[in-house]
Design a protein that fits this description.
The structure holds 2 protein chains of 2 kinds.
Chain A: H1 7-34, H2 39-44, H3 55-63, H4 67-97, H5 103-112, H6 122-131, H7 138-162, H8 166-174, H9 179-190, H10 192-208, H11 211-215, H12 224-229, H13 239-259, H14 261-268
Chain B: H1 2-23, E1 25-32, H2 35-42, H3 45-50, E2 54-61, H4 63-75, E3 83-87, H5 90-97, H6 117-120, E4 124-125, E5 128-129, E6 132-137, E7 139-144, H7 145-150, H8 161-171, E8 179-182, H9 192-202, H10 219-235, H11 245-253, E9 257-263, H12 266-270, E10 282-286, E11 301-306, H13 314-324, H14 327-336, H15 348-352, H16 354-357, H17 362-371, H18 395-410, H19 416-433
Parallel strand pairs in B: 1-2, 1-3, 8-9
Antiparallel strand pairs in B: 3-11, 4-5, 6-11, 7-9, 7-10
Helix pairs in contact in B: 18-19
Classes of the chains: A mainly alpha, B alpha/beta.
InterPro entries (chain A): BP-dep_ABC_trans_perm (IPR050901), MetI-like (IPR000515), MetI-like_sf (IPR035906)
Subcellular location (chain A): Cell membrane
Keywords (chain A): Cell membrane, Membrane, Transmembrane, Transmembrane helix, Transport
Chain lengths: ~270, ~450
């Protein structure tokens, strides 16, 4: 029998959920508020009421070109996500449906690469990129972000695939489906929610990646992370302009996240209840 | 026949396009985001009109990120940048490593002898210039003339720290949210340690002796650090251990500081009536020294333009640097904006200019820069150059570690004695590890 919650409990939990959500969202909200303040207002202390100036957005747009870094962000995050999925779907399929004794070890090894601080391999990667002519190129950055996010993508897909009954795949084999047809026409449609949430999460991770995107680019391939970084200043006031630049940089991904939240939640909770 | 003509025409067009492509050079310039650099970016049309074959690409980054980016690139000869904006801390170290190209072709009318000697001396090696100064700064005291008058104080021509401390305590009014003095407290080699190193210089102290032995166990450091902590406790703003340049600038602009000791470039901000509520009430004085010590801190910083050894476009890069750091550029800024907007602290001729002399901060800034000598920064002899920094590669990390210890002492998390003992221990270990102490 399902447990029933009283109205009081429901209200209490709703309030708690709202408070937690507001706490998590507050930094973004405050960034947006600050972007409408003047520089002296921005640094004067915590205040939730801006004077409502649009000057920061005008300054940001006049000082730097927004369109090129925006397009770079779109290309790099979408490109790296598609590339990661192409590699990760067969990898996760083989580990989920044809596990060996070492599958768990391989998965753990893949994840362990995420535990290393990125700066530890900065110089070797930089030298490789220099020698291969990949510095400041979209291709180089796309490959780099693919490799960075691949362990998470494989792990997520592996978890989703494990939830799919192997019998269904066996049945398709009995019906004469080839390996390729099995992955494309049987497995993939069943795992769409999982793949969709992996795709969305990977786009968000790639969009926000700041370490490599700033260090491996200069002008041609520099995405929005580099655009934001350019507004910080050692001498002089810059908080309001920085907030405006940040708002412009996060707006596309925020909007995308808002519209796809149903898929995200569905995918992230996929397999949570057996 | 027609096809042949068409093909010939197409080939000719391609050849012309190819030649045009080959002749056009694109320079990638790495820079920091401050007012003078942004202004330069908006005025580059003057350069590209005179040099139509050179295009400019700007990479603007936060100071620490820029430092890390350009260091990686210059050390690996990545060739990503053709012109870099670097500080006078990096120039001697990088030039010695062979990471920078000498600037020997900045143009016939460049007049390198016009560069301020104190700035120029830090940018050359064996008589060759390795970076050209874009703007320079020293440090000076900015104070509220109205509050001094109210307290019956007169700023002496050469103030001592004893006078400054007394004045700060007199001016402080906690009820009116007014602090007598605002000083840097945020940890970092370019933050609190810039001020504390200069302060210690003016107390007769030094970072290392002639054999690179750290000097934090000497009386000068004890006296200067104790002086700073006590003064900030009595007359500094609350939460001073997290205040850097920008935080103190805001406090001073909002009328919450009686005095502020910081980089001379601050003068143009505090005197700006658009953002400062005290613009018409600011006086300037030279960096104080301890009674009986002839040393005014020797704070000297310049942002300079240099060409990394990995660049393949050195000729065009020199042309650009020659333009950006020339006398002509200062005149261009003055004609497009105002003399107050001209990048300060690099050329003697600027300080001879009658129009520039009319700006309220020109005289005090010039005096402060002239008084600074980074080749002989301390009273006692030292094996390094540098006023508010030490010209060794290890200083960035060592300075920041010591800065954290001193910031903790300011916040009351440790005593001055403990902070100094730890600083001595850490720096002895680092200097031994670096091979300075045998």
């Amino acid at each position: 029998m399902a447990r029933t919650a009283s109205t009081g409990q429901k209200i209490a939990w709703t309030v708690v959920a709202w408070v937690i959500a507001l706490v998590i969202f507050f930094p973004i909200l405050y960034t947006i508020i600050t972007s409408f303040k003047t520089e002296p207002e921005a640094i004067a202390g915590i205040s939730l009421i801006p004077s409502g100036t649009f000057q920061n957005y005008i300054d940001v747009e006049t000082q730097r070109d927004y369109f090129r870094p925006f397009m770079n962000s779109v290309i790099i995050s979408l490109g790296s996500t598609v590339l990661a999925l192409i590699v990760a779907i067969p990898a996760a399929w083989s580990m989920a449906f044809s596990p060996t004794r070492r599958t768990k070890d391989i998965l753990m090894w893949m994840l362990s690469t995420k535990m290393m601080p990125a700066v530890a391999v900065l110089v070797p990667i930089y030298l490789l990129f220099r020698d291969w002519g990949l510095l400041d190129s979209r291709i180089g950055l796309t490959v780099m972000l693919t490799l960075i996010n691949l362990p998470i993508v494989v792990w997520m897909l592996y978890t989703y695939f494990r939830e799919i009954p192997g019998e269904i795949l066996e049945a398709s084999r009995m019906d004469g489906a080839s390996l390729w047809n099995e992955i494309i026409y049987v497995l993939t449609p069943m795992a769409v929610p999982g793949i969709a949430s992996t795709l969305l999460l990977n786009i968000i991770l790639a969009w926000n990646e700041a370490f490599w995107t700033i260090r491996l680019t200069t002008t041609n391939a520099a995405p929005l992370t580099a655009f934001i970084a350019s507004f910080s200043s050692p001498q002089g006031l810059f908080w309001a302009k920085l907030s405006a630049a940040s708002t412009m940089a996060i707006a596309p991904i925020l909007i995308m996240g808002w519209f796809s939240q149903r898929q995200l939640v569905r995918g992230l909770t996929f397999g949570a209840v057996k | 026949m027609t096809l042949k003509t068409l093909m010939l025409g197409a080939c000719s067009l391609l050849a012309i396009a190819g030649t045009a492509q080959a002749q056009s050079t694109t320079l990638t310039i790495a820079t920091v985001n401050n007012g003078d650099m942004i202004r330069m970016q908006s005025l580059t049309e003057d350069f590209t009109t005179k040099n139509p074959d050179i295009q400019l690409n700007w990479v603007t980054l936060e100071e620490n990120v820029l430092r890390e980016r350009v260091t990686t690139d210059v050390a690996t000869k990545g060739g990503q940048y053709d012109v870099m904006t670097i500080g006078n801390y990096e120039v001697p170290i990088w030039a010695k490593q062979g990471w920078l190209l000498p600037l020997d072709n900045l143009g016939a009318d460049y007049d390198a002898d016009d560069l301020l000697p104190s700035i120029r001396s830090g940018l050359q090696m064996e008589g060759k210039l390795y970076a050209a100064p874009f703007y320079g700064e020293s440090a000076m005291l900015m104070y509220r003339t109205d509050l001094f008058e109210k307290a019956g104080l007169t700023m002496p021509e050469n103030p001592t720290w004893e006078f400054i401390a007394d004045a700060a305590r007199k001016i402080t009014d906690r009820n009116a949210n007014l602090s007598g003095i605002c000083l840097r407290g945020k940890a970092g080699w370019g933050e609190n340690m810039a001020f504390l190193t200069a302060l210690n210089n003016s107390f007769g102290g030094r970072w290392f002796d002639e054999n690179w032995k750290p000097q934090f166990d000497q009386p000068e450091w004890k006296e200067s650090l104790q002086f700073y902590v006590d003064l900030m406790k009595d007359a500094g703003p609350s939460g001073a251990s997290s205040n850097g340049f920008n935080e103190n600038l805001t406090l001073f602009q909002q009328g919450q500081c009686g005095m502020w000791m910081d980089a001379t470039v601050a003068a143009s901000f505090v005197a700006d009536p658009k953002n400062s509520t005290v613009a018409d009430k600011v006086g300037y004085a030279i960096f104080p020294s301890k009674e009986g010590v002839d040393n005014h801190g020797n704070w000297l910083w310049s942002w300079n333009l240099a060409i990394p050894a990995g660049s393949t476009k050195a000729e065009a890069a020199q042309k650009f640097i020659g333009w950006a750091t020339s006398k002509g550029y200062t005149e261009l800024v003055a004609s497009k904006e105002s003399w107050a907007a001209v990048p300060p602290g690099t050329r003697t001729s600027l300080y001879d200019n009658a129009e520039y002399k009319k700006t309220p901060f020109a005289g005090p800034t010039f005096k402060a820069i002239q008084a600074a000598n980074i080749t002989k920064p301390t009273v006692k002899p030292v094996p390094y150059i540098g006023g508010q920094w030490v010209s060794i590669p290890e200083f960035q990390s060592l300075g920041t570690t010591v800065g954290q210890l001193f910031s903790a002492a300011l916040a009351g998390q440790s005593s001055v004695d403990d902070a100094l003992a730890q600083a001595q221990q850490v720096s002895t270990r680092e200097m031994t590890r670096g091979g300075y102490i045998k």
